[in-house]
Design brief:
The protein is of the alpha/beta class. The chain has one domain (2-306): UDP-N-acetylmuramoyl-L-alanine:D-glutamate ligase (3-Layer(aba) Sandwich). It has helices at residues 31-41, 56-67, 135-146, 166-177, 187-194, 200-208, 248-262, 268-272, 280-294; strands spanning 2-5, 9-16, 22-29, 46-49, 51-53, 70-71, 76-78, 84-90, 93-99, 122-126, 152-155, 182-186, 214-218, 224-228, 231-235. Helix 1 crosses helix 7 and helix 7 packs antiparallel against helix 9. The radius of gyration is 18 Å and the shape is globular. One of its GO terms (molecular function) is ATP binding. This is Carbohydrate kinase. It holds the Pfam family PfkB.
Length: 307
Amino acid sequence: MIICCGEALMDMIPVAQPDGRNAFVPHTGGAIFNTAVALGRLGVPVGMISGISRDAFGGQLAETLAANKVSTDLLVRSDLLTTLAIVHLVEGHATYAFYDEGSAGRMITVADMPVLPADTSALYFGGISLVSLPAADAYADLCATAAGKYPVMIDPNIRPSFITDAPAYRARLDRMLGQADIIKVSDEDLAWITGGAGSLEDQAALLQAKGARFVIVTRGSEGAMALCDGEVAHVAAERATVVDTVGAGDTFNAGVLGHLHREGRLSKAALRDMSAQDLAGALALGARVAAVTVSRAGANPPWAHEI
């Protein structure tokens, strides 16, 4: 079972009204939540660790996970409120404003972390759950504890406007990236982390030097690349009519993890024996499922029968 560790929240999506104004409609979301749902829809055994409220939105989040074949056994329930993400769309491109102070997701602690089940095969981290305390330290501690035994994939999915203490966030993220087997970043994330000097390959090499076996860089319509030991593999983006980009990267990550699971390569030993070219099939599935997601509104990843 792949364990997705991080935020589950409500995306408030703008919907045009007859009078020309926008109303915001709640949809289940969050980067880590979206990846968990996408994995479940692909038929991959998956569970989620997250702080979930007992309020109506928290109930909706838990129900959505279960309906999409994601185990809810590891959720940490509390009476705190659910995080809200106000989504702004400009020509289909999404930006976010988060309402997260004192939320069920943010206030999860090291002591709250459940014991990993015996059938755990890999852990996935990222998103805004790595930014704010105490949740960020709780996930960092889990990553440090588990990384020696299980493959770890991290997608920081950086939201600069949400980061209030950049030095502390950078230090925490740097430690976690050093424990990861697979690092996935967008080209924008990569520039934020490295400073943006040099080519994408040069920047990716800086990340791989921290210890990861693979660094994957996505470039929107330009496709994706994977770097391993100086070798680079490229995969083109799938053609799609873009409605919006909500959940595209999260779905891509599910495609990568799902392919590795399906091929029996989601172990630390198997990953060590793989080259960048060996990862091309995982990138291709990531591109394929992401293309479906961007072709319809919101984070709505495909089921296995759709691909």
